[in-house]
Design goal:
mainly alpha, 637 residues, 24 helices, 5-stranded mixed sheet
Amino acid sequence: MTTTLAAPEHAQPAPEPVRKPRWVKPSVAALLLGTGLLYLWDLAKTGWANDFYAMAVQAGTWSWKALFFGSLDPGNVVTVDKPPFSLWMMGLSGRIFGFSSWSLLVPDALAGVASVGLLYLAVRRLSGPGAGLLAGALLALTPVAALMFRYDNPDAFLVLLLVAGAYCVVRALEHASTKWLLLAGVAIGFGFLDKMLQAFLVLPAFVLAYAVAAPTSLGRRFGQLLAAAGAVVVSAGWWILVVALWPAAARPYISGSTDNTVLELAFGYNGLGRIFGEGRGGSGGRTFTPPAGLELPAGVELPPGGRGFGGGFGGQTGLTRLFSGEFGGEASWLLPAAVLGLAAGLWFTRRAPRTDRTRAALLLWGGWLVVTALVFSYMSGIIHPYYTVALAPGIAATLGISVRELWRGRANLAARAVLAVLLAVTAVWSFLLLARTPGWQPWIRYALLVLAAAAVLGLLFGTDRLRRLGPVVAVLGLCGALLGTTSFTLATASSAHSGGTPSAGPPVASGRGFGRGPVGGFGTAQADAALVGLLKATTTKWAAAQSGAMQSAGLALASGRPVLAIGGFSGSDPAPTLERFRQYVADGDIHYYVAGGRGGFGGGRGTAGQIQAWVEANFAPRSVGGTTVYDLTKSIN
């Protein structure tokens, strides 16, 4: 592998040639246009995607306060269990264009296009346009990327902010720029406001790359990194400070926390609770009772009392997790090759100067890949396969850089041999992944093997003609390596997804349909037409109240009227209290209480259970479209 830096440490050369090859601009345009088409085409067929977040966006289009806090309803009773950055983006879109499925999802799709573009720019600055284009294409053609950039979960904007942070680190590396390093910290801070501690998984890689390769003294590097840490704290902490200083009685309850604070949510349920399991890290010892009629994924079993249910989503911990079950089809297609490419790149640059650009790029993106992969592999709490979208930029950039450098050094037998190994491993793993869905397009897995085999033979035995046959070998290799992941990506983009646990790939690849299709999985529910009509006719502050957001979200979205989700997402949060709920009823703020449904993990216990018991004791039930409804304007006492 060749390196691209031979200048003194304090005199970094220009990051790119003055004149770019003619093919660069049209290639970049094709990449961005193709990505936009992939992520934006027929976007509205997904509907509301995850009703849970769509409900909060809807509330944000009605109330600025709800938008700021990320409340589930415009009355600001309880928030979602995440910080609100992605809700701000989707809510602003809804306010500008009117709330609809399209305005909800377009910001996420545009975040995907921007992520691909920024990844290209970041990789290009240290490794050239060829590596940048390959990295951008690999990100765009990752199945889980096509899933989450067409969805309303927070992950789309998390990826954009992390890639933006990496781009800023790259710019800082060029001339030891404090300004760009501070901007990287700002990007990570806002990433925290999108998905809390998950945004910090890239920090070790950012620190390592800058500490090793920045062209300045060790003392200045250390001081700059401390300043960047301060930028992270400030850009993440301003919102936390505002929430902390806001009187608790005048703001919504922070869902998922045990003490109504953002910090407890960040380090408890969304922090240590995710890493060590539901019973630790401030989870409050909450238990899970499966909603009626919910079909769990194949192989998922609930431990006694429902503890640690989140681990069931992710299967067993260990290095094989990312290759097994639904995880395998989400983002692992190129993971083995990326790891091998990283190892080869670091070996070939082991004697390069400290500020070597290629090694710096590998430390940055490879560190992102390794740390994130290890955390995802061993975390014992709630983890969903679609979380692996945060791995995709690290995989794409690491592989783009290593393949470009190996191809540049293809006159060397060792470089060609490593390239051949990368290609062979990718083809074999893609074949095995596709074989998990034998009934879906079986020709693809055999075609990619033939293409990859031809490219491997060309690399290993076409030494004398490689200069002339180079473009043919490159095309064959790319087709063989990318046919599997591309086919899964296209199948993902062409399918409608819904619920809180969507899966990439064709429908047959999703096991027992958990979280796919028009109904199924957390965060999606179909509301009865008669019940929706009843709510549409209301004029009260809330048309209805219901335990948990899993079904109440569907009622709010279908009726276009505010619905109070008692207890937040799972029905387990103590908001509103029974006393507050009774006051709402006395003030005439809630017209109906909707019983039953799938909302509520609490199993009738806690605040939600107390409210339900009070309603049943004081109001008469009636059936509307098969659902039991209580008219809270007509007490029987």
